[in-house]
Design brief:
50% of the residues lie in helices and 13% in strands. With 271 residues, the protein is of the alpha/beta class. It has 2 domains: 166 residues, 3-Layer(aba) Sandwich (Rossmann fold), CATH 3.40.50.720; 93 residues, ProC C-terminal domain-like (ProC C-terminal domain-like fold, Orthogonal Bundle), CATH 1.10.3730.10. Strands 3-2-1-4-5-6-7-8 form an 8-stranded mixed sheet, sandwiched between helices. The longest helix has 22 residues. The mean pLDDT is 96. It binds NADPH dihydro-nicotinamide-adenine-dinucleotide phosphate and (2S)-3,4-dihydro-2H-pyrrole-2-carboxylic acid. The site of NADPH dihydro-nicotinamide-adenine-dinucleotide phosphate has 25 residues, from α1. It is found in: Cytoplasm. Catalyzes the reduction of 1-pyrroline-5-carboxylate (PCA) to L-proline.
Length: 271
Amino acid sequence: MTIRLVLAGCGNMGYAMLSGWLKSGKLPPAAVFVVEPNADLRKRAEALGCSAAADAGDIPADAVPDLVVIAVKPQVIRDVTAAYKRLGDGRTTFLSIAAGTPVATFEAILGDRAPIVRCMPNTPAAIGKGMMVVFSNRLVSDDTRRFVADLLSASGEVTDIDDEGLMDVVTAVSGSGPAYVFHFIEALTVAAEKAGLPAKTARLLAMQTVYGAASLAAESGEEPGVLRQQVTSPNGTTAAALAVLMGEDRLTHLLTEAVEAARLRSIELGR
Ligand SMILES: NC(=O)C1=CN([C@@H]2O[C@H](COP(=O)(O)OP(=O)(O)OC[C@H]3O[C@@H](n4cnc5c(N)ncnc54)[C@H](OP(=O)(O)O)[C@@H]3O)[C@@H](O)[C@H]2O)C=CC1
Ligand SMILES: O=C(O)[C@@H]1CCC=N1
């Protein structure tokens, strides 16, 4: 079958996206060629029905994929991208998910004919519940934008931005954000255990509470603040807890600091 998509890097995020695409049926596994040096990760991709190789040099020489997805660490991005220079003649679109790395870095390597899309996904993409934020260079045609948006929509919500400078804060909010929520689950579990619940029950309550609350916020169409007030009886238990979290805007300050730390790191990674 014709290779339509090359995935360079099938680690945490590359695999999450690949799984979402294949599950949706938008892409047949046989149309995907994975380049990944780690043998175990190659096997994992092959188990999905994709072809895989350790090196970009193993891609059939006559292959002209619609899309090359660059899903490697920002630290190796230049070397990895250079291996695909032959595909920079305008027929193949490049989609990078690397934190920090600007479109200009790819343009400098691939030349001035390559359509380049920069996307910031997150790991819930693996189950079709990701958040994908997309910035495209001027060579990406409307047709290609639609094609990429359709593919990415298999992984969850897709939104465009036209100011690339905002990608660092996007990364700090939705790219890294699932880790903040996972840590919240961990922290609530610890608090529940410290207050006397058995470990298994503590974990179940923390997990289902976050899942249920996020689902209610997404599905009810109600503002989070209104939903919060619906839980908070006057002078009740929730009010007592919220006085700790919201007093002096504690949690908001903490998250503002965390997002700023991630944003600054994203800028550093792009240098
Ligand atoms: N994880 C996340 O939640 C998110 C990650 N991202 C971005 O996604 C990118 C990948 O991150 P993540 O998946 O977490 O990282 P991983 O380390 O899990 O995956 C990257 C994979 O690329 C492999 N690799 C190294 N060199 C090459 C090469 N020359 N060709 C092909 N593959 C290669 C690595 O192998 P080896 O380990 O052997 O070097 C590794 O398996 C990063 O740029 C990150 O900023 C974006 C949004 C969210
Ligand atoms: O931690 C990181 O750098 C990557 C980018 C966003 C999520 N993970």
